[in-house]
Every structure is written in C-alpha cells, then in structure tokens.
Amino acid sequence: MTPTLPHRLALPLAGLLVVAAFAACTSTGGAASEAPASASAAAAASAAPCPTTQPDPLPAGETRTVTIETDLGSMELKIEADLSPIAAGNFVALASCGYYDGVPFHRVVPEFVIQGGDPTGTGTGGPGYTIKDEAVTGTYGRGTVAMARTADPDSVGSQFFIVLSEKATDALSYYNTYQIIGSVTSGMETADKIVVEAKGVELPPDPVIMTSVTVANP
C-alpha cells in the first residue's frame, strides 16, 4: 500500500484509503472542532510576539537557517523564500517568536515523515490563523521540509513535516499540495533517531520534543 501522510483523525495507516486520508494533520485552528492552541511558554516570554494573522512573506531570494534542538540531537534547516514565500515567512515568524519551543514531533510514520508544530500534541492544534495556499515548487525527497494541511483550501497553520525517505516521493507528489519551504541541510540522523524512539507507534505517547528552535540569517 502506498504510504499516506498523517491524518488529523489519527486513524491507523491501514484504514486511510480515501483521498481525504492523504491530508496531513491540520496546522490550523480554523475548523469548528479544532480550538486554536496557545503558543508555548517560551513564546510568551519571547521579545518578538507571535503572529496572530498571516505574517509577511519571506522576501524573494532570501533564506534563513533554522536550527531545531532535541534531546536526541539537532537538525539544521535551510528555509527558502523562492520555494513558497508565504509559507516560508510564516514558518520563520513562528520559529523566531519561540512558538515551536517545547512542541513535540507528535506523529511519526517510518520511511515517510515526522510531523510537528502543534503545541497541543494532538495533531489538531495550530496558531489560531491560517495562510493562503501557494503553488508547490520543488520536489519532495528525503530531508524535504513542507507544511502540513487538511484537504481544505488555505488550511496551513503551524504544523510541518520532514520527509524521511525517497519512498514518500510518489505519494506526496500525487497530491502535490504540501508547500515545500526548504530542506534539512544537516542532522537527518536526528530525524532517524526520532523514528526509532517512537518504537513503531505513529502517535507516540512520549513524543520527542523540540527543546529549542532558532532562526539565523545565513
């Protein structure tokens, strides 16, 4: 069976046979059944307030280096405006204000993706706003960083995923709706350790936490 992206309903992979089941966990707070999550305590203490509406796009041609620290190691991401300026600007704004500090990688699908960015850890939380859709540019592959969404238009919020394997390419490319914002430039071994730590559980009861997420200009 072709792997599916994690679904917000937390169904087992074997049951995800319809098109809607390929949607990644929502990162919005917009659905009626999904209350917006508050930012982490670290975000509240941050000098830069977290956005409450769609932030400014990342300017054309610009990149940012985002470092995700966990107890299992770190990952360094290159976020590129020219891939998806709105989504890249949103991710950088949230990372800059501390929104992701203390937030788990709540969903782990071996040889497919690890997904995080929901402060509630349930897969249904987000920043309380959504951003506009953009055309997907680039191709999915191991180390790709992309934004999670539901099947609804303009449903991207704070949740994102990192692709673990080239085997995920066909499934992701088939729907081609998950805005690519960058790639992991170092530390993919940490992503692999997160998979091992999950012990085969897609929604691990003790997920790996992003202890610190920081942004730097290259």
Give a concise summary.
By secondary structure, the chain is of the alpha+beta class. The chain is built from 4 helices and 10 strands.
Brief descriptors of the model:
218 residues, globular, 10 strands, alpha+beta, Cyclophilin, 22% strand, 16% helix
How would you describe this protein?
With 218 residues, this protein is of the alpha+beta class. It has one domain: Cyclophilin. 16% of the residues lie in helices and 22% in strands. The chain is built from four helices and ten strands; from the N terminus they run αββαβββββαβαββ. An eight-stranded antiparallel sheet has the order 4-5-7-6-8-2-1-10, covered by helices on one side. A two-stranded antiparallel sheet has the order 3-9. A hairpin with a 2-residue loop joins strand 1 and strand 2. The longest helix has 12 residues. The chain is globular. The termini are far apart. The N terminus is likely disordered.
List the topology elements:
Elements: H1 41-45, E1 63-70, E2 73-80, H2 85-96, E3 103-104, E4 107-109, E5 113-116, E6 144-147, E7 160-163, H3 169-175, E8 180-186, H4 188-198, E9 209-210, E10 212-216
Antiparallel strand pairs: 1-2, 1-10, 2-8, 3-9, 4-5, 5-7, 6-7, 6-8
